[in-house]
Design a protein that fits this description.
By secondary structure, the chain is mainly alpha-helical. It has one domain (1-32). It has one helix and no strands. The chain is globular and about 25 Å long. The chain starts with 22 loop residues before the first helix and ends with a helix.
């Protein structure tokens, strides 16, 4: 996920709102 920068693809699995623009960035900050 990190090498391909596919954090947004994980947002659905975590049930994060689609309207949240920074949800992918948030996941990256938590898990790195």
């Amino acid at each position: 996920v990190n090498t391909r920068n596919e954090w947004l693809s994980l947002c659905e699995q975590f049930h994060l709102p689609a309207g949240c623009v920074n949800s992918g960035v948030g996941l990256k900050q938590i898990y790195l």
